[in-house]
Structure formats: C-alpha cells, structure tokens
Write a structure and sequence with these properties.
heterodimer; A: alpha+beta; 3 helices; globular; B: about 170 residues; alpha+beta; five-stranded antiparallel sheet
Chain lengths: ~130, ~170
C-alpha cells in the first residue's frame, strides 16, 4: 500500500495522461474514475463511500459538494482545496486561500485539446477563488 | 441556530483576529465548511449531518493534506467540537503531528547515537539495529524515548466513534 502523497501523485499522473474531455461533466467523471482506480489499487481500503467518515481512503467529490457558478464552472469543495471543472473539460485543483500576492497555489491543472486551461476559460479565476 | 452556525459564531467572537471563511452547501445533505486561520494554524471544520469534523494543519503539514479525505477527528456535540477548535487555535497545534521514525526524532533533538547508547547502557551497534527494526518492543521504545527526554504515550483511535484512548500496560 502507498501513503496518501504517493497515491495523489499517481492520481495526478492518471489525470494528466487520460484522454482530454470536452465538458465539465466528463471532467468530473474523469476525476472520479482516476481517484477510484488509484484508491482501489493502492489504499488498502474498500470502496464504500457510505463509510467515508471512517475509512482512510480518498473519495471523489459527491454531488452535494459540487456547485455550478454563473459562468458554468463547476467547483468541488473539499477541506482546504477547490477543484474546478470548466465547461470545456479543463481541470484545476488549487488551494482554498490566495497567497499575499493574490495568487492561489495550484496543485494540478490540465488543459484540453485547444490548449486552454480553466483560467483561460474563466479569466476571473486568475486571481480569485470563486 | 444549527450546531455549525453556533460554532462559527463562537469562533468569530472568541477569535476576532482569525481569518474565517464559511461556505455552506446549498444541498440539505451537503457539507458545510468553516476554515479558520490564526497565525500558523489552519483549522477546518465540516458539518455532516449531526457530526462535526475537525482537522488542524500547521506549517509542517503537507499542503495536500485534507484533499478528498476525511477529517482527523469527529464530534457529536458542538460544544465539545468548539472546545477542541479553541484549544487547537490557542495552542497552535495540528490534529495530526507529523509521523517520524525514532532516528528522525533523535536527530531533530540533536542527540547522537553514541550519546543515547551510553544513556541506555548498550553498544552503539545494538542501538543502531534498534533504529532500523520494523518492529520494536514497547518497553524498549519507552526507554529510548525517555532517554531522549520524552514520555511515550500510546493512543488507540476509533474512527467510528471518534474515541481516542490512551493505553497503558501492566
């Protein structure tokens, strides 16, 4: 079994190497599949989302933790991070807070076929988090 | 007021210098989040049904801690949760101290293997083997920790109830 940091690294690799998608819904499905596959292989814990409060396993964002803002960006909130899914399928995972320069810490980002990232689709997210 | 709202209110009153972010889910089954930053500590509170989850992170925490995972501690009583949150903020402690090997702790405390071997009245080679073992007797571990000036505590954590019990041996 691997520790969480190692599993997250594999998760990011699988997201990066997966085929590009073209909608926010497909991006969410991609995130879900990548995380479930990594946790199934490397966490040592069963895939029982109902027991997420007990298990030492990462679970994908649930529908009730996902909001869609006015420009169509889906935002998945977790404890200290937000995952953004743009309408063109781009994905970004960043810190909750901005640094003193007004910039977020970005842990992962994936563009789509046209090379555009989340911030290209939604420029206001270059120095804002919602 | 919901237990979550009570906690958010009490934190704002008792810690007026903390940065507070409240985000409530639009879904009745969703999670409400309260993030509190004070000096070097970030405490995250999440309300899930009747339960309150609490996690705290400091500068030694991995920046990816908390992504897609569960809280470190659970409380069914909002006053107990608030007391814990207050304690973490006041003491500037995280809920999950970084895991370390015996060797790492010894090095951080600036103690050589020679020095600790002498205190334990064993050869250095013997002590060195202990640091490399995957399994160590509790009595041996206790002697090593005490030789470093510390005290060994063993905790059993039960995620289903949130109970944390300190264990002792006769």
């Amino acid at each position: 079994m691997l520790n969480k940091r190692e599993r997250l690294a594999i998760f990011y690799e699988r997201l990066e190497s997966a085929s590009v998608v073209s909608t926010a819904e497909a991006a969410l499905e991609l995130v879900n599949l990548a995380l479930v596959s990594v946790e199934d292989e490397f966490s040592g814990e069963p895939n029982e989302p109902d027991r997420w409060q007990e298990l030492d396993r990462m679970f994908p964002p649930q529908a009730d933790s996902i909001s869609t803002v006015s420009d169509g960006i889906k935002i998945c909130r977790s404890r200290r991070h937000r995952t953004y899914l743009a309408q063109n399928g781009a994905i970004e995972i960043r810190s909750l807070v901005l640094d003193p320069q007004g910039q977020p810490e970005v842990y992962f980002k994936k563009a789509v076929a046209d090379g555009r990232f989340v911030c290209d689709v939604c420029p206001r997210l270059k120095n804002a988090n919602r | 007021m919901s237990p979550f709202d009570l906690i958010a209110r009490d934190v704002a009153v008792d810690f007026p210098h903390a940065e507070i972010l409240v985000e409530k889910s639009e879904s009745p089954t969703g999670i409400h989040y309260l993030n509190i930053r004070l000096n070097n500590i970030e405490v995250t509170v999440e309300s899930v049904g009747e339960r309150i989850g609490v996690s705290a992170f400091d500068s030694s925490s991995d920046p990816l801690d908390g992504l897609f995972g569960k809280p470190d501690e659970w409380y069914s009583d909002h006053k107990a949760a608030f007391h814990r949150i207050a304690s973490l903020l006041l003491e500037q402690r995280n809920t999950r101290p970084p895991v370390a090997t015996i060797a790492k702790v010894r090095q951080e405390r600036g103690i050589s293997q020679e020095a600790i071997s002498e205190q334990l009245d064993v050869r250095q080679a013997t002590y060195s083997k202990l640091e490399r073992r995957a399994d160590v007797k509790i009595s041996s571990l206790r002697r090593v920790v005490e030789a470093m000036g510390g005290k060994l505590l063993i905790q059993a954590i039960f995620p289903d109830t949130g109970d944390v019990r300190e264990l002792t041996f006769k």
